[in-house]
């Protein structure tokens, strides 16, 4: 086991360290512990979503609806908070996770039972979810003064020196580490992505595993939806617009093979942190934040080209989803 | 628990030509289009007006131009999600050229060239490096629009020459717009290319079995590269029309259009897994989508709510035939039992 050093993760971690050192050499303040904690907190939503996306991509699917799911759940819980300001936070969290999981389940059922390519399903649900936000909110914003202090305060509350938002990200990372390596579900996800035919012969239900992956991704998107809206203290139709691409980018940069079956929790987390560091470093080194989009696009291309060259198998087309159903 | 392996049936000619025509997806779609037309003309008194209908075509002409090329690309088993970003980049390049005093011919050349270059960029990554097109074009989707944002920020380019407005605002005769003319010409070109040439047969062959196509002497990589070039070129044409129509360029131009283009292609009966589909199907799908959005617009339905319909349409169009197949398979199984 000692021989098994995760090469890709090491390279990525070194790249992130190098980046931080480069920034620190000109702006020492960037590496102050308080600032690094800030960067991590800022990246926490991306980390959580990247982990959900990783599970989906590992099963040879893709979930482009996460940002819309996040926005819809965020709007829903914000409106619930306005209607019932006394509702305790645990209930809000439960509602957010359930709503998100339900939206994930819709994606999952369409992929599992009707065998529709995941990209089509989630492109469709992405627009549908965004449209529904407009329908339920009537295009209006929910602003901070309408939300209860407990609602907006929760993700920012400090616990052992870090905000709750950061702790949730850490807990999610740990939980996923255990789930992917120690549970039947986690192993079957790798099996389904690695070789669906073989997975069927070992008694794994491929479609149901993919369904499970979508539910996990949806639940995390729902959770992040509440955290996002509470943290920025505003909910409107377009929040987290285009964020799904950043989430996919984090996974691709983290070495999750879009062809399924290859990837790790560490990779996804590092991919998200890489993007988070870049995003937070841009204003520090005085580059316009408008560079962000182009940088993450280039990072996707470089990472996918790099991974394909180092990977054993050639990338398969994700549209040609698994031929095995049920 | 049953394991069904999904296979594509390619039967020899079983029905007469007329029977196949009536049973085809295109015929069904055509009936839907007529139904929507009739419903719309009853729902709103403003629908049956030549000028209104002419205005309504702008809803789909630009998207359809890209959809024709995208149809070929999807039939060959690839996809391009970066088309809307190519529009943004091409439009930004044209806007930049205007600041340096470029005239209409130069602008057209720039728009087409940027489109081609972007298509070539995608093509190189997919065919030469052998990467999955969906990831590559998700990456270039960010990259191309990202470059627009770098150039423009939250600014906008204006001041296009007056003659440039011909493409998006001009009329050929009475209510027939220049864009309609482009739409018809491009539709015919792509219909001939796909249905009447060796190249078109190669596209189908690649979509059905890339390895088989390779062994039968088709240069798979080259065909795919050309298809990416064509999709880029069509995005350039659409960028010219859209920019000319709007008269300004913002980096957020055409956001989300890739979804509508893919929806149009899939609605037109093109198999998202590749291998089958027709250009006439895409033409009818373009009209269906145009009529739906125009009809809803007349009824004061906001754009974002229309996008719910587009999303439902995209999923429903694929889901319903599959549901139908599942139900009829179950019925058959029950009969045997």
TrEMBL record, chain A:
Matching InterPro entries: ABC_transp_permease
Gene Ontology molecular function terms on file: transmembrane transporter activity
Subcellular location per the Swiss-Prot or TrEMBL entry: Cell membrane
Topology relative to the membrane: Multi-pass membrane protein
Keyword Membrane among UniProt keywords: yes
One Pfam family in the UniProt entry: BPD_transp_2
GO cellular component: plasma membrane
TM segment ranges: 43-59, 66-84, 90-112, 119-137, 157-178, 210-233, 245-278, 290-308
Keywords: Cell membrane, Membrane, Transmembrane, Transmembrane helix
The UniProt record lists the keyword tRNA-binding: no
Entry protein name: Rhamnose transport system permease protein
Species, as recorded: Yoonia ponticola
TrEMBL record, chain B:
One Pfam family this sequence matches: BPD_transp_2
Cleaved signal peptide residues: none
Entry keyword annotation includes Transmembrane helix: yes
Classification via InterPro entries: ABC_transp_permease
Any one Gene Ontology molecular-function term assigned to this protein's record: transmembrane transporter activity
Domain of life the protein comes from: Bacteria
Keywords (A to Z) from UniProt: Cell inner membrane, Cell membrane, Membrane, Transmembrane, Transmembrane helix, Transport
Main location: membrane
Localisation per UniProt entry: Cell membrane
GO cellular component, one term: plasma membrane
Transmembrane regions: 27-48, 60-76, 108-129, 134-152, 172-193, 225-247, 304-325
Its membrane topology: Multi-pass membrane protein
CDD domains: TM_PBP1_transp_AraH_like
Function: Part of the ABC transporter complex LsrABCD involved in autoinducer 2 (AI-2) import. Probably responsible for the translocation of the substrate across the membrane.
Assembly and oligomerization: The complex is composed of two ATP-binding proteins (LsrA), two transmembrane proteins (LsrC and LsrD) and a solute-binding protein (LsrB).
The protein's name: Autoinducer 2 import system permease protein LsrD
Source organism (scientific name): Yoonia ponticola
């Amino acid at each position: 086991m000692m021989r098994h050093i995760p090469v890709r993760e090491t390279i990525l971690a070194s790249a992130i360290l190098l980046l931080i050192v480069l920034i620190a050499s000109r702006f020492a303040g960037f590496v102050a512990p308080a600032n690094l904690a800030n960067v991590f907190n800022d990246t926490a939503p991306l980390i959580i979503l990247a982990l959900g996306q990783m599970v989906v991509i590992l099963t040879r699917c893709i979930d482009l609806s996460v940002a819309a799911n996040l926005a819809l759940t965020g709007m829903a819980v914000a409106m619930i908070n306005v209607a019932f300001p006394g509702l305790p936070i645990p209930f809000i969290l439960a509602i957010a996770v359930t709503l998100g999981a339900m939206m994930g389940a819709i994606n999952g059922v369409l992929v599992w039972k009707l065998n529709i390519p995941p990209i089509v399903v989630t492109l469709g649900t992405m627009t549908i979810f965004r449209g529904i936000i407009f329908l339920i909110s009537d295009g209006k914003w929910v602003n901070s003064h309408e939300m209860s202090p407990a609602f907006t305060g929760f993700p920012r509350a400090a616990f052992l020196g870090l905000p709750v938002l950061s702790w949730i990200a850490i807990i999610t990372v740990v939980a996923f580490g255990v789930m992917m390596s120690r549970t039947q579900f986690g192993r079957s996800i790798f099996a389904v992505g690695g070789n669906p035919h073989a997975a069927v012969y070992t008694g794994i239900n491929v479609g149901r595993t993919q369904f499970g992956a979508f539910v996990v991704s949806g639940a995390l998107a729902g959770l992040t939806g509440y955290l996002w809206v509470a943290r920025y203290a505003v909910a409107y139709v377009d929040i987290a617009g285009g964020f799904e691409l950043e989430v996919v980018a984090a996974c691709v940069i983290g070495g999750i093979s879009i062809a399924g079956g290859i990837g790790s929790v560490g990779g996804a987390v590092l991919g998200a942190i890489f993007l988070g560091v870049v995003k937070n470093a841009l204003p520090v080194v005085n580059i316009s934040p408008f560079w962000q989009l182009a940088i993450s696009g280039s990072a996707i291309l470089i990472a996918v080209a790099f991974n394909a060259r180092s990977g054993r198998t050639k990338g398969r087309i994700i549209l040609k989803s698994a031929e095995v159903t049920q | 628990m049953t394991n069904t392996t999904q296979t594509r049936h390619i039967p020899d000619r079983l029905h007469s030509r007329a029977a196949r025509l009536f049973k085809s997806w295109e015929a069904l779609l055509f009936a839907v289009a007529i139904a929507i037309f009739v419903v719309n003309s009853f729902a709103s008194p403003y629908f049956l007006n030549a000028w209104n209908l002419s205005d309504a075509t702008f809803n789909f002409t630009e998207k359809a131009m890209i959809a024709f090329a995208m149809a070929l690309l999807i039939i060959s088993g690839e996809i391009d999600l970066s088309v809307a970003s190519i529009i943004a980049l091409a439009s930004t390049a044209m806007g930049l050229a205007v600041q340096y005093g470029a005239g209409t011919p130069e602008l057209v050349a720039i728009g087409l060239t940027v489109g081609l270059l972007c298509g070539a960029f995608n093509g190189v990554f997919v065919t030469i490096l052998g990467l999955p097109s969906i990831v590559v074009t998700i990456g270039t989707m960010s990259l191309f629009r990202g470059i627009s944002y770098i150039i423009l920020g939250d600014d906008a380019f204006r001041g296009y020459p007056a003659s440039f407005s011909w493409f998006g605002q001009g009329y050929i005769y009475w209510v027939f717009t220049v864009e309609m003319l482009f739409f018809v010409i491009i539709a015919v070109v792509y219909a001939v290319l796909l249905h009447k040439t060796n190249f078109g047969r190669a596209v189908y062959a690649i979509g059905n079995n890339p390895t088989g196509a390779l062994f039968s002497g088709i240069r798979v990589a080259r065909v795919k590269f050309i298809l990416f070039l064509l999709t880029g070129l069509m995005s350039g044409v659409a960028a010219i029309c859209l920019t000319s129509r709007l008269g300004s360029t913002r980096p957020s131009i055409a956001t989300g259009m890739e979804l509508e283009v893919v929806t149009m292609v899939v609605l037109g009966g093109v198999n998202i897994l590749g291998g089958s589909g027709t250009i006439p199907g895409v033409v009818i799908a373009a009209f269906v989508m145009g009529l739906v959005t125009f009809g809803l617009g007349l009824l004061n339905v906001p754009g974002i709510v229309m996008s719910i319909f587009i999303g439902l349409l995209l999923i429903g169009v694929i889901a319903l035939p599959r549901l139908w197949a599942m139900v009829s398979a179950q019925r058959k199984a029950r009969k045997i039992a």
